[in-house]
Backbone:
């Protein structure tokens, strides 16, 4: 889930629900505080539910005031692959991605912290990616096969 806000944010809570009525915290992110610029934040739900899940944000300001975002839904189908292995993680020079139990092409994108696609490719079973040109930081890898998506986080040192 990605979002952008401007001034006075203390904390963001990402909340999820199976029914759109009962909510649990799916993660939280410290706000940037007093900023004159729009700052983009993101959160990945590593424990997504199978089927439709609903998400919303609760933003809390320094003055204690809270505000909720609009509700969005995501249909999380069965796991894309039986197993996706990414190693080493954290990575310095070379990232290896392997799948087991999948004979179809898997498309993937590596997304940097600002939401820009920095690498895009596809593979079957195993691929090696040179990461020396990537800046230090956290990245999200989005895998897609047959309209089913899976997300993994990798850290570049």
Residues:
């Amino acid at each position: 889930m990605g979002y952008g806000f401007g001034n006075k944010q203390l904390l963001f809570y990402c909340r999820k629900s199976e029914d759109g009525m009962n909510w649990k915290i799916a993660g939280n992110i410290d706000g940037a505080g007093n900023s004159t610029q729009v700052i983009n934040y993101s959160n990945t739900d590593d424990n997504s539910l199978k089927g439709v899940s609903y998400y919303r944000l609760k933003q809390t300001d320094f003055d204690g005031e809270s505000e909720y975002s609009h509700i969005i839904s995501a249909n999380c189908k069965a796991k894309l692959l039986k197993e996706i292995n990414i190693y080493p993680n954290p990575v310095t020079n070379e990232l290896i991605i392997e799948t087991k139990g999948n004979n179809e092409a898997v498309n993937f994108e590596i997304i940097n912290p600002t939401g820009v696609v920095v690498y895009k490719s596809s593979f079957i079973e195993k691929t090696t990616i040179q990461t020396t040109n990537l800046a230090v930081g956290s990245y999200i890898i989005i895998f897609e096969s047959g309209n089913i998506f899976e997300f993994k986080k990798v850290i570049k040192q």
Residues 1-7 have pLDDT under 50 and may be disordered. The first strand starts at residue 2 and ends at 5.
